Amino acid sequence: MRVRRLLFQVLTEREEKASVANASNESFGGWTKTFTDPRLCAAIVDRLTFGGTILETGTDSYRLAQATKQRTT
């Protein structure tokens, strides 16, 4: 839990001071798997999305496909 709160603190301190780039294979709705505290999860998503640009590529993860392929062979 400490790492999650540290990430929140970093995002809060950088808010409106510098850009933050984030990449995720999970939709925001799935972030509660990682950030299990719903309030903390909502606050992190809020910090990342406020005034930002969200790019959804709609593509599958190349790394996930390769890892899955290696497991089945």
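Above is the first protein from milestone M3; the second protein from the same milestone is given next.
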Amino acid sequence: MGESSADFDRSADIVVVGFGCAGLAAAISAWRAGAETLVLEKQAQDAHTPSTRMSGGMMMAATDIAGATDYLDRCAGGMVPRDVSEAWARRAITLIDWLLEIAPGLDLKHVGGAEHPDFEGAEALGVYQPGGAKTRLDQNGKAGTFLWDQLVSNFHEKTKVPVLWNAPADRLIRNRSGRVIGVETTDGRRIEARKGVILTCGGYLHNAQMKQDYLRTWPVYFYGNPGNTGDGVRMAQDVGADLWHMNQMIGRAIGNFPLEDGSDLPVMLFLNPPGYVITDCNGKRFADESAQADLLHGFYYHLLSYDPATGETPRNPSYWFFDEKRRKAGMLTLPSVGAHAVGLYNWSSDNRAEIERGWIASGATIAEAAAAAGVEDPEGAEAEVAAYNAACRDGAPDPHGRPAETMVPLDEGPFYCVRLYPGGSNTTGGPRRNARAEVLDTRGQPIPGLFAAGELGQATGMLYPSDGCNLSEGFCFGQIAAEAALELQEVNT
């Protein structure tokens, strides 16, 4: 604290830290208002993997402010103030038009709605995704890649806002009054922000220490941007920011596999078509697996079980069983999402390469596959799948309430088993912020000159509202942050 030197390497009205959907939205909004704007991006331009690009390209929008506010507030479960949800709902009304103004070629289609349709206000939400022939032809169905490429090419062409690549932000610079007046990068460059700094540098999904300290189980893996390592959390803490819902994430059960260089490959796995069973380490089923198969975001809560008598987490990892029918039905992941979308790995179409790598355990029987995957009681898993198969044949109600149409037996060998871990696309904890996207200190007061948007302190709580919620939040609060920052008087260092 106490910085007062005007000796900066570069200067701008607004400095945006991180170039994903939230950073892009903030930079565009600041540029449209006539502000001199500069973006700092940690990654190199030719190795840039923003979560937007790795996503399914879906955006949640709203048709009614009151209804959408009610719904978002219910999903937040008390973890986000209602006025913050209202600010999001208000901006989500105009989101699709805003995106099409920037990139008219997006060809956005309505593809779905709220994830919890019985909640009040659910009808006020809609999900949109690039869906035209150009998307399918140019990007092989990779809607997130198509979305990002369309937006970023128009951004560069229209705004000419400079992006400093290979510029990881290291700390925030303050003046004697405590106002944030700039950013210092890891290589010592000092960037002045005359009106404000907007942190849009993602969560801590690839910071092992933060995940172990803050999340509700361990280990946890995420398939979002490898560059999101909690930098914004640390920088905000340095200047006195309060934190909120650090134990929350956008969750699923996912795979995590070792690569030859010693790193991990987190992968969103796709159970469908039916013919699947998930057990704990003892080979026992514990929940309706169809929620995971349908890629809903609540199933991972079942994986957080902790046994205080043994100190163990019996469902972390869990074990996904399937048979040869499912192996032949298609790859066990979606090639349009995560590492596959940005070329970090290409999953084989028949899953053979992953079987050879040992990522998918196999056996002539369920017990053999279970033993190969590390299930503690392989015979217990064999008996559990046999009971499941009998229920499928007899048409008996599933004890976990699984829909009858998903009850397809595992009856064609060989059989397979894959470990599942709690994880997902991103963490949501970070610096606490208000409805103006201002970062708040531990007394609830705005830290002058500091704003945040996107995964870093995302305005979600207990339940994920709908597909496209991550991008919607980033696009909406990126705009809000820039507008609020531009209302500040220019700093006098």
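Note on the second protein: The first strand starts at residue 10 and ends at 17.
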